[in-house]
Write a structure and sequence with these properties.
The protein has helices at residues 30-42, 49-64, 81-90, 110-123, 140-154, 176-180, 185-200, 226-235, 253-256, 258-269, 284-318; strands at 3-8, 17-19, 26-28, 68-73, 95-100, 129-133, 166-172, 207-212, 240-245, 273-275. With 319 residues, the chain is of the alpha/beta class.
Length: 319
């Protein structure tokens, strides 16, 4: 038996299109391409997402050891999930753990990655026993890693000024109708923020929540938007802010532009100091958390495989 991990990259491109029907067909808008081109130019011309995701997958493979083989698949760019599933089928993989690099579950994100895996199995007529990790938003290791980022951000102020620093947690916005329909994403995001603030020792009055990176569609998206929230904080004379996105695990355009450029411009207008520590990326605590999630779901498979491998040796010894 070969036991493997199907590890998918977090969403980036999906929100750059307009949904024009309930069938899931997406139509890129010309003005969106112009806007996105400028956004990428502002962060140096390219996103580091693929490079960082490869580092995360390599670090996860190292943490898991020889019992596992890690595969990287994406929904919106190559390597495409369906094609990677085809590689897994060709490699003889029989069992796999599906792990999306996004901690909170939503039908618009995690579920679609899981469906892409199913589509790949159907396309390549494969049979792989799958265990998906639907959410790890409250996993202790994730909370520890994010709390360390909060402390890192606050430490950029002199010690005597840290008590006035306000922490804003955020995640990618979703259409309001999705959350109103019972999707757990919003509640899980806020729960992550609450647990991180608690672990980092940030009192309730010194942290708040906002969404960011809303899609470019006519329907209402969940708020408050980060920029609007900064304006509200400024009206309360808050001038020192740490931004900690808890819905993202990699530095990419939704952080490097939406926070480091767009939100930073709002902060400057308010004479506000805004700091953002790096995303988790390949942080060892975060990677070990992912490894623990995989080991937990694959434990019985690994034990069975080892038992089968050891069986001939035991028979030979008995003879």
């Amino acid at each position: 038996m070969k036991t493997s991990v199907s590890d998918t990259e977090a969403r980036e491109t999906a929100w750059l299109c307009e949904a024009v029907s309930d069938t899931g067909f997406l139509r890129p808008l010309p003005y969106v391409f112009d806007e996105v081109t400028e956004n990428y130019r502002a962060i140096g011309g390219r996103s580091p997402l693929l490079e960082i995701t490869r580092r995360q997958v390599d670090a996860l493979a190292d943490a898991l050891g020889d019992d596992f083989r890690c595969y990287l698949g994406m929904r919106h760019w190559s390597p495409w999930i369906q094609e990677v599933v085809g590689e897994m089928v060709e490699d003889g993989v029989t069992h796999a753990v599906g792990l999306v690099l996004a901690p909170q579950f939503s039908a618009l994100s995690i579920a679609k990655y899981q469906q892409s895996v199913a589509d790949g199995l159907e396309l390549y007529r494969g049979r792989i026993v799958l265990e998906h990790v639907p959410s790890y938003h409250d996993e202790p290791g994730l909370i520890d890693a994010l709390a360390a980022r909060v402390r890192e951000g606050i430490s950029r102020w002199p010690e005597e000024e840290r008590e006035r620093v306000h922490v804003v947690f955020s995640a990618h916005s979703l259409p309001e109708r999705v959350l109103a329909g019972g999707d757990p994403y919003g509640a899980q995001c806020v729960e992550t923020a609450r647990l991180v603030a608690e672990r980092a020792g940030v009192p309730e009055e010194r942290w708040s929540w906002s969404y960011q990176s809303a899609g470019r569609t006519p329907e209402p998206w969940a708020g408050p938007d980060l920029g609007e929230h900064l304006l509200e904080l400024g009206s309360r004379d808050v001038r020192d802010v740490v931004s900690v996105p808890v819905g993202f695990v990699s530095d990419h355009v939704e952080l490097l532009f939406d926070i480091d450029v767009k939100a930073q411009a709002v902060a400057r207008e308010l004479h506000m100091r805004l700091e953002r520590p790096p995303a988790l990326n390949d942080d060892p605590v975060f990677v070990e958390t992912l490894a623990g999630l995989v080991r937990e779901r694959a434990a019985s498979w690994v034990q069975e495989a080892r038992a089968r491998q050891a069986s001939p040796l035991r028979e030979g010894g008995a003879a």
